[in-house]
Amino acid sequence: MSEKAEINLSGVKQSQGVWLVKVPKYLSQQWDKATEKGEVGKLRVGKKQGKPEVSFTLNEELTTLSSLGEKAASLQVPRDHPLTMQTVGGQTLAVFTQTDTDEISLEGMVVQRAECRTVINDSYMKLKKLQIEESTRPQRLSQQLEKAVTNIYKPVANHVVNVEYDKKKKTEGRMVRAERQVVLDMLFSAFERHQYYNIKDLVDITKQPVTYLKEIMREIGVYNTRGACKSTWELKPQYRHYQSAEEEAEEMKTD
Predict the structure, then answer these.
(1) Contact status, residue 24 vs residue 116, Cβ threshold 8 Å
(2) How many C-beta neighbours within 10 Å does residue 228 have?
(3) Is 243 strand, coil or helix?
(4) What is the pLDDT of residues 123-137, one digit of tens each?
(5) Residues sharing a CB contact under 8 Å with residue 24, sequence separation 6 or more, in sequence order
(6) Residue 213's closest CA among 180, 243, 245, 238?
(7) Which residues of 98-129 are buried (b: 16+ CB within 10 A; e: fewer)?
(8) DSSP three-state, residue 164
(9) Can you tell me the distance from the alpha carbon of 252 to that of 250, in angstroms, rounded to the nearest whole number?
(10) pLDDT tens by residue, 30-56
(11) Are 200 and 215 in contact (CB under 8 A)?
């Protein structure tokens, strides 16, 4: 953006309200595939028990994956996404647009913040499994050489990569907060393997600060204060891909 760029306010009411919504990375990638028409889905706004209930439904033609290789061809991203509404929190936020000629226009003032959440279902769990497989795939492969390598490298006291890492570690601290969705992905992946974790194990898995991790776990998890699993965390029922012993017993009674 040019430092001398002028903001075009003609024909724009500063009182026009807009929403600032945070969406998962995979959803924004699917939006980029939209046609020239630009329609990506439908937003439903309603009320339930006097409280606002907002959800987004992705267009069906945008549900097909293509960015994760051949395995993703048969997978579809989740369509339904409930929105968690948040206040602006006393901040003054605005939305601007910029053209190729560096012309800046004010579109409106932010009156509502929200976070687009994913419904945890079979389609989402398959997507996360595929993403985990892609992230753990080795970037380097062994290859047999036809000729011997003759280059001679002199040993160094410390490699440049290690020096830069130590410098970054001292500057930013031992643990740096990752994006919320990235932490959620790591947590859901961990709870696919085990039902219960103590906070120390979750810190080791996610490499996140304890206070930040507990804040997220209070939203998606339950802390056990008694019983055999005392002092451990587990997912709330709506986020689990399994049934607890109590739920299984209740189903057997119903049957």
Answers:
(1) yes
(2) 7
(3) coil
(4) 788 888 877 777 777
(5) 81, 116, 118, 181
(6) 180
(7) eeeeeeeebebbeebbbbbbbebeebbebbbe
(8) helix
(9) 5
(10) 888 887 777 889 999 998 888 889 999
(11) no
